[in-house]
Design brief:
The chain is of the alpha/beta class. The chain has one domain (6-213): Vaccinia Virus protein VP39 (Rossmann fold, 3-Layer(aba) Sandwich), CATH 3.40.50. The chain has helices spanning 6-24, 33-48, 63-70, 82-91, 129-139, 176-185; strands at residues 54-57, 75-79, 96-99, 112-118, 140-151, 161-164, 171-174, 189-196, 207-213. A hairpin with a 6-residue loop joins strand 6 and strand 7. It is globular and about 40 Å long. The structure holds S-adenosylmethionine. S-adenosylmethionine binds at residues 7, 10, 14, 25, 58-60, 63-64, 78-81, 84, 101-103, 118-120, 122-123.
Length: 218
């Protein structure tokens, strides 16, 4: 008997929970104005730099994709889970959603003005993260922006990644320095980083956000 890969485990877990997830998180960070303003800033930077397409990678049922679209960005979504994509298409018939994996994106090199990864790398085994960040770097156009949202390790933790028992499937908290390192190794420049305290229905853990940009000059 073969062991399922982490991608298969994550896909099956989100297929099973998709409807409940969509009911639990119907909208984009309604109770977190700090996050909303950060995402609005990301959208503004993308628009200012020419308003090219933005991909919401690991989009789930598309709540953040819809939020980006409401901010005047040309947004589409990709997710591993076919059931999540069905829900995203049902709820957002005007937007494009495809089943796919961030480990091997069906997106041409240098074509995106922005990539949003909102809690979509949390289930990726730490040793597989460089492949995904390399994909983020590959698909961004020069000057394009990446915004990553993740569960942060405690500020004094010596570990780059720490596993925890997420409700859907095994997940990892990441240190902001580690995310910055992954971004740098993918050829991107850090623009900003943020840690905020948990709130609303987040029971534990600080939340990390990192904004990066693909340099215009190689
Ligand atoms: C915690 S949910 C977040 C969904 C969405 N970003 C949101 O904020 O509502 C994580 C999502 O990432 C997706 N995901 C995890 N690994 C992925 C991969 N390698 N490629 C594409 N999607 C992935 C899962 O299927 C799931 O829908």
């Amino acid at each position: 008997m073969t062991t399922p890969s982490s991608l298969e485990t994550t896909r099956d877990a989100y297929d099973a929970i998709a409807v409940l997830y969509a009911e639990t998180f119907p909208t984009a960070m309604d109770d977190h104005p700090v996050d909303r303003s950060l995402i609005a800033g990301f959208a503004e930077m993308v628009r200012t730099d020419g308003a090219g397409p933005v991909a919401d990678l690991g989009c789930g049922h598309g709540r953040m994709t819809a939020y980006l679209a409401s901010l005047g960005v040309t947004a589409s979504g990709v997710d591993l889970s076919p059931t999540m994509i069905e829900l995203a298409r049902r709820d957002n018939p005007d937007l494009r959603f495809e089943v796919g994996s961030m480990t091997a994106l069906d997106i041409a090199d240098g074509t995106l003005a922005g990539v949003l990864s909102w809690y979509s790398v949390i289930h990726t085994p730490p040793e597989e993260l460089p492949v995904i960040f390399a994909e983020f770097g590959r698909v961004l156009a020069p000057g394009g922006y990446l915004l990553v949202g993740f569960f942060a390790t405690d500020a004094d933790s010596p570990h780059p990644a720490e596993p925890f028992d997420h409700k859907v499937s095994l997940a990892y908290r990441l240190s902001t320095d580690h995310v910055a390192d992954l971004v740098r190794k993918a050829g991107l420049e850090e623009v900003a980083r943020l840690r905020r305290e948990p709130g609303g229905n987040e029971r534990r853990f600080q939340q990390g956000r990192l904004l990066a940009r693909r340099p215009t000059e190689p």
